UniProtKB/TrEMBL annotation:
Transmembrane segments: none
Entry-linked CDD domains: PRTases_typeI
Gene3D superfamilies found in the cross-reference section: 3.40.50.2020
InterPro entries from the UniProt entry: ComF/GntX_DNA_util-trans, PRTase-like, PRTase_dom
Domain of life: Bacteria
Protein family membership: Belongs to the ComF/GntX family.
UniProt organism field: Cohnella terricola
Record-given protein name: ComF family protein
Length: 250
């Protein structure tokens, strides 16, 4: 398309999907550390201020869970059901706001940006795991929470990622009972209470590397319990491995 025609059809102002600023005025002023063209395009829709504010975890210090700092939880946990996990960003106040913006409004533009941020962790995980993934699944929400919100953010992000990278998305887990908000519990309480929260759908399982997706990694007990339940359900099938993929690491 000739330049003049392109200009004619292009919107006069591109609005940043996060903050609503005129993105064109500050565009091109941030690095986009993702290779796949679709998430790259989504990140390019951000204004420069938002793009530069993303606290990417480019060099994890804990090579198990992908945290940017050294990690007591992984040292303490002697038995682990997931292989490794990677997290896209540090869970800063700003990232809390971005996730809340999405969780409570379900805005599609924000969803695309958050999925594109997650793509960064996916590409890092592929390098770290040095193998391919055969299916993607997500940590289910409690039924009460799902009714309140109307959607499971981890599932929606997982579906977006699966579409971009040509993976198959499969629901494999159910949440069995409602627990109090995690933040109200002590660290030890959380670890104990995760047991019995999830069940795996046997018919959805198959051998290979499964990518398990959740929005925020706090202690890792949700991720680990889900991985344990998946592996237990696979029983004799020792070739099932679970890798964690998280949007943010607190
Ligand atoms: Zn912005
Ligand atoms: Zn760790």
């Amino acid at each position: 398309m000739p330049l003049t025609l392109g200009k004619w059809f292009a919107p006069s102002k591109s609005v940043c999907p996060i903050c609503g600023r005129d993105a064109a005025r500050t565009a091109g002023s941030g690095v986009i550390p993702v290779r796949h063209p679709q998430p790259r395009q989504a990140l390019a829709s951000l204004c420069g201020l938002c793009l530069r504010a993303i606290p990417w975890i480019a060099y994890p210090v804990c090579l198990v869970c992908g945290r940017a700092e050294s990690c007591e939880d992984c040292v303490r946990r002697k038995i682990r059901s997931y292989t490794i996990s990677r997290c896209a960003v540090r869970y800063t106040e700003m990232m809390k706001d971005w996730l809340a913006l999405y969780k409570y409004r379900g805005n599609e533009g924000v969803e695309t940006v958050l999925a594109a941020i997650l793509a960064f962790a996916y590409e890092r995980l592929c390098e770290a795991a040095n193998s391919e993934f055969h299916a993607v699944t997500s940590v289910p929400l409690a039924p009460e929470r799902l009714r309140e919100r109307g959607f499971n953010q981890a599932e929606r992000l997982a579906i977006r990622l699966a579409e971009w990278y040509g993976l198959s998305y499969r629901p494999m887990l159910h949440r069995l009972r409602h627990t109090e908000k995690q933040s109200l519990k002590s660290r030890l309480g959380r670890v104990v209470d995760m047991r019995g929260n999830f069940a795996a759908d046997h018919s959805a399982l198959f051998p290979g590397n499964i990518l398990l997706l959740d929005d925020v990694y706090t202690t890792g007990s949700t991720l680990d319990e889900c991985a344990r339940v998946l592996k237990q359900a696979a029983e004799a099938n020792e070739s099932l491995r679970v890798y964690g993929l998280l949007w943010a690491r607190s």
